[in-house]
Amino acid sequence: MSAAIGTPFGLFIGGREIPSSDGQQITLLNPATNRPLAEAAVGRVADAHHALEVADRAFRESGWAGGDGAQRTKALYRLSRLLEEQAAAFAELESLNMGKPLRESKGDIDFVVRTLEYMAGLADKIEGETIPIPGARFDYTIREPLGVTVHIAPWNYPLLLAVRSVAPALAAGNAVVLKPASLTPLTALRFAQLAHDAGIPDGILNVVVGSGREVGEALITDARCASVSFTGSGEVGRRIAELAAARLIPTVLELGGKSPVIVFPDADLERAARAIATGIFQNSGQMCWAGSRLVVEAGVEAALLEKLRAAAQGLKLGPGIEAGVTMGPLVSKDQMTRVLGFVDEAREAGARIFLGGGRPAAPELQEGNFVEPTVVTDVDPDARLVREEVFGPVLAVHRFESADEALRLANRTRFGLFASLWTRDLATAHGVARQLEAGMVTINEPPMTFPQTPFGGYKESGLGSEQGRDAPLAYTRRKNVIVNVGAAKPKK
Ligand code: NAD
Questions:
Q1: Ligand 1: residues whose CB is within 6 Å?
Q2: N or C: which end of the chain has fewer CB within 10 A?
Q3: Is 1's pLDDT higher than 60?
Q4: pLDDT value at position 64?
Q5: 254 included as an active-site residue
């Protein structure tokens, strides 16, 4: 069967698309139908090394790293404009490849445009300091780019998470090698072409598709790789941290979550229910910061769950690119099997399936990787469904009697990416927000972030953070310079 997108995708190295060194390709499937979507080149170790060599040369010779940053500001801004012009095509490609509804893909591309604008604005504001020191001396610091930075991205927000980490590195003057997830490389490859069209020098942004173990590790262990930024699972994050530690290079790690949503009895239950549904069913729950544990006060549990049922029943499942669809398939068959396994295990252990719990019955959804929006109550707080990241549309519910108990339940996890809480009481809101062990908290809002707000986790959810004003600084090193200015000559 031929692929829906006829033209095969190559690797993007040195400003152009090229085949992989041994000509290997994979067939990517449309997750809504499991039929062939596109052919993409798969890189090998030789391609990883080639990309590093090209990036290293571009870093030293292209002039991208130098000057006052104005060239980078202009180029990143041009790139944001080009992407905005082509946003519809990028959103469609993202939905076809990853499965998410078009409306969500459009939101993702808007976020990428805004990230590029924001980072363009920072590229000419990477400044040093002057520091008072004793004697006839002058002290100043310089921020220098690291060199070649490596970025490894997951499949759940393919372009957004790639650019979120790549854009600040480019703004700071680095040359980049990006390895997208093998399942979802298409928008990153098209984006690299756009960067070339925007005038970013050839070799400054390279994209190598390939297996994490082979290509990812070849990139990180090479002497030319000056830092690694990784977004993905905790298991792979640990492996990357080990490899980076052996080379003493800096890392930014954005890992998994098991985020709590606390609902106090005075909350606006209508708004809370809609936000909880967004926080766990958006992107079919394939979100690092999904609000996957509901911690609700016992007296309002039944009312909230009924509202949540209504919100979930209003979702329309189907292929992401179809008009009106609000929940797409999971990214792959493996992911669907994994998610259903968590639910089956909880059911067998005595949990109650309040909503969903399996594959939807509609005949037209049988070919794709669809899972119903699912809510599980009366679940043991030590069940795997509660402890581990499911990465699917599955919400576990716990009830509490007191605020202390709510906090204990919320913080009872090795993750700490995100938490949200619902109350109309200011003292409860701010008091609980301070005590939540999470890098990001929303009060009376669903999960929410902007390019200008930091994004990062506590505990096993990661190390360092992305987005925000400081993001480019993670891709710089600081040099201190002391100058002897000589003793002032006495006036004659
Ligand atoms: P994953 O860890 O399996 O893969 C992520 C990337 O790492 C892929 O590109 C993969 O090819 C690569 N990789 C795999 N093994 C590697 C190795 N040994 N060396 C180098 N690279 C390697 O994650 P996934 O399944 O693609 O994504 C889902 C995970 O990502 C979830 O755990 C989710 O919570 C996490 N995530 C976190 C954030 C965040 O900002 N904190 C955002 C989105 C997703």
A1: 152-156, 161, 179, 181-182, 212-213, 216-217, 231-233, 236, 239-240, 254-257, 288, 389, 391, 417, 457, 462
A2: C
A3: no
A4: 98
A5: yes
pLDDT score, position 472: 98
pLDDT digits (tens, 9 = 90+) for 423-459: 999 999 999 999 999 999 999 999 999 999 999 999 9
Active site residue 225: no
Domains of the chain in start order, with CATH, are 11-255+461-479 (3.40.605.10), 260-443 (3.40.309.10)
Choose one of 44, 115, 152 to mutate for the ligand 1 pocket test, by most ligand atoms within 8 angstroms of C-beta. Answer: 152
pLDDT at 390 over 90: yes
Ligand 1 centre to CA of 409 (Å) is: 27
Q: Residue 2 has what pLDDT?
A: 73
Which residue would you say has higher pLDDT here, 67 or 445? 445
Residue-wise pLDDT for 339-365, tens only, equals 999 999 999 999 999 999 999 999 999
Look at residue 166 and tell me whether its pLDDT is greater than 70: yes
User: 3-state SS of the chain?
Assistant: CCCCCCCCECEEECCEEECCCCCCEEEEEECCCCEEEEEEECCCHHHHHHHHHHHHHHHHHCCCCCCCCHHHHHHHHHHHHHHHHCHHHHHHHHHHHHCCCHHHHHHHHHHHHHHHHHHHHHCCCCCCCEECCCCCEEEEEEEEECCEEEEECCCCCHHHHHHHHHHHHHHCCCEEEEECCCCCCHHHHHHHHHHHHCCCCCCCEEECCCCHHHHHHHHHHCCCEEEEEEECCHHHHHHHHHHHHHHCCCEEEECCCCCEEEECCCCCHHHHHHHHHHHHHHHHHCCCCCCCEEEEEHHHHHHHHHHHHHHHHCCCECCCCCCCCCECCCCCHHHHHHHHHHHHHHHHCCCEEEECCCCCCCHHHCCCCCCCCEEEECCCCCCHHHHCCCCCCEEEEEEECCHHHHHHHHHCCCEECEEEEECCCHHHHHHHHHHCCCCEEEECCCCCCCCCCCECCEECCEECCECCCCHHHHHEEEEEEEEECCCCCCCC
Protein residue closest via CA to atom 16 of ligand 1: 212
* 451-490 pLDDT tens trace: 999 999 999 999 999 999 999 999 999 999 999 998 777 7
